[in-house]
Amino acid sequence: MTTTNVFPENFLWGGAVAANQVEGAWLEDGKLPNVTDTLIGIMNTKPSISWNEEQGIWELNLEKDRAFLSHEAVDFYHRFEADIKLMSEMGLKAFRTSISWGRIFPRGDEETPNEAGLAFYDRLIDTLLNYQMEPVITLSHYETPFALLAEYGGWQNRQLIEFFDRYASIIFDRYKGKVKYWMTFNEINNAFRMPYAAAGVIKFPATDPNEPITTLTKKEIYQAVHHLFVANALATKRMQATDPDALMGVMCSFSSLATYPIDCNPANVFGALEFKRNSYLFSDVMCRGHYPGYVKRIWREEDCAPEIADGDLALLADYTSDYIAFSYYRSTVFSVDAEMRVDTGGAKGFDNPFLTEKAPEPWNWPIDPLGLRYVMNELTDRYELPLFIVENGLGIDEGPDENGQILDTERARYLKMHIEEMAEAIQDGCDVIGYLWWGPIDIVSAGTGEMKKRYGFIYVDRHNDGSGSFDRLKKASFDYYKQIIDTNGLDLTINF
Predict the structure, then answer these.
(1) Which residues are catalytic?
(2) Most exposed residue of 109, 166, 201, 286, measured as fewest CB within 10 angstroms of its CB?
């Protein structure tokens, strides 16, 4: 029997953003660039940097004729109090954002933090708490300080564990008792397909300065990933010692787990399994506390095993995740005969003829709400940990009509269908902490660096050419999400 009357009273309905997509003020109050400041969209494999052969470092080299919209984003840095007040009108019970590492340690390797950066997050977190919103905080959402890549090579250098530990320790001490839900690295399982942004790693020293990303070897990326795992475990240890009531979650992009074989050909069925293991590796290590056998075979046969220091494996085993946070946008169909291309929503293989609805042009994502239930059940069966949906949403190219309104029915339908399947998963036995809609306010798209791919319940007047007033406008979906939260998921009727 289908019912949405299954959400507990303390269910965390909310929204999610990332510092690098919303704050702007990219060089203000002592902040220095991070990896995403050098990109127009994280799917871009060539950041705007150049190799300085004489000094042996990477340098920022931004093209003056290109619009780096994230540098100003939607000016949340200066407008967050009004924005949070506006979002509180929807009744949000939780708000996920990231702390920009480069605001706290601008280069990443300093001994002492930047007090101006900490003061900003003091105000932000206190404002959330004043509006009864649970802060859900990511320590690094594609935000490794650029200097750590430029001068150290990024996460393939073991020194970054120490730098991240210093950063995490400062943050946990500062916000103990205020933040209950933490994540270290956003969508860490994207490390292989987006190593520069997701794994904070670059070829160092440069052997081919024109291709700084694609020249990375599997061994180099596995090494960076291992250091990220160790840093995550060490941060979990620090958090537990500082604030025993706080929780640490692994955060992965798990649209990839909704990968269906195109038919019952065993090669396609097993191929889909292997494709999903590219993501499961990360949650297996961070939730189970050890490397699985399937990756050890890859290391052995492809000679790409990372160097593992004494004590690393014990640390991974002792400090595992308390919950699983994940993003879900779409599903895909696997075939050994199809190239598995990837965008920010997930993998793209063959079209699924059984899915009749798609996201609007030009993105055309297949809409598969049952895929969310499928992923939730797979994760519950595998790990038996609480789940936290910290990203789910629909991007639309939209603007006000002649009456100054935005009647975003497609967004409301997407939201409704996914909440219905989340309710089914809860009845299946999944323990769910909350649901955070990706982008409750329009932000700069992570994948493409554009403004026109809008996810928000709140419209921001800013455009791809950088023009706009930054004014905010409620869309029709604003009141719809308020209705859902007010009824704790019971009333999903769309009235516009």
Answers:
(1) 187, 391
(2) 109
